[in-house]
Amino acid sequence: MKVRLLNAWRLGMKELLSLWNDKVLLIMIVWAFSGGIYTASTATSQELHNAPIAIVDEDQSVLSSRIAGSFYGPYFKPPDMITESQVDAGLDAGIYTFVLNIPPDFERDVLAGQQPVIQVNIDAMRVSQAFIGAGYIQNIVLGEVGEFVQHRRSEAAAPITLAPTVMFNPNMTSSWFGSVMEIINNVTMLSVILTGAALIREREHGTLEHLLVMPLGAFEIMLAKVWSMALVVWIAVGLSLYFVVGRVLDVPIAGSIPLFMAGTLVQLLATTSLGIFIGTLSRNMPQLGLMMILVVLPLQLLSGGMTPRESMPEVVQDIMLFAPTTHFVSLAQAVLYRGAGLDVVWPSLLAMAAIALAFFVASLLMFRRSIAAQG
Asked: How far apart are CA 212 and CA 218, in angstroms?
C-alpha cells in the first residue's frame, strides 16, 4: 500500500505540472474564483434598481404630474413621457419594463369619489423586477393619490402591527448570498472539469497507454488525478473566500471557515470522482462538455443553492438527497451564514462522505473496466 500511495503522489505531481503548463485551464480557474465570483454577485441584483419606466399621461392634471414625479432613483429611472402609440414598441424593444397609462379625467374622477383605473403594462420577461416593481408602483400611486385627496400623507391603522426581524442578512444584500453560492457552484463545476479533462488529455495524448505498461493500477492513476485536482480547487476556494468574498465584497462570515473547508474537501472527493466517471465515458473534450451539461447543471439547479428545495416537487427533493451538492449547499449555508457548528452540520457531512465514497468506488470500477477493455 505504501508503494501504491507513493505512485499516486508522484502521478499527482505530474498532473499538477501538466495543469501548470495548460494556461487556458489556469486562467479559467483564476477567473472563476476571482472575477467570476465578483461579477456573479454584483452584476445581477434581486432588488429593484434603476428600472426603466414610462408614463402615458392622458389626464395632464396636477395629480398625474405628482404621480409621474414620484418615480425616482434608486428604484426607478426618471420616467419617459410617451404617447399611447409608443407603448407596444417600447415594451417590444425592451426599452421599458413598466409603462403606466393614466386615463383622461383621472383627477376629476378621484375627487368625485370614484375609483378610476391606472393601467400598468409590465415586461414580465424581467421576472424579478416585474414582480417587485408592480408592488412598488402600487404603493407609490396609492400614496400619492391618498396625499392628494386628504392633503396629507397618512396610512390607515392596521388591526395588528408586524415587526419584521431579518436575520443573517439584515440589509438583504444579494451579493452576500450570491458570492457564496457562486463559490459552491464553481467547486462542483471546476472539479468535474479538471479531473475529466485530465483523463481526456491522457487519452488524447496517448500517455494513458504509457502508464498502463508501467507497474501501475487503476487505483493509483485515479487517486492521483483526484487528489491533485481537488487540491487545486480547494486552495482556490480558500483564497477566494478570504480575499474576494471577505475583503473585496466585504461579506461577513458568521461560522467556522475550517469547518467549511473540511466540508469542501469531502465534496471535492465526490465531484472529482464524478469527473473521472464522466471522463471515462467520454472520448473527447466535446463529449465531456455535453455530458457536463446533463450532469452538472441539474446538480447546481436542484441542490437548493438557487431556489429553495422546499419549492420543488417532493420526488425531486427525494432524488436530490443522493447528490452531494444538496448536502454541501445545506452545510455551507448553515456554517457561513448562520454560524452553525459541527453539532448541527454533522448529518450533512456524514451524508457527503457516504456519497463521496460511493462515487469513488463506482468511478474506480468504471475506470478499471475501461482500462481492461483497452488492454
From this structure: 9
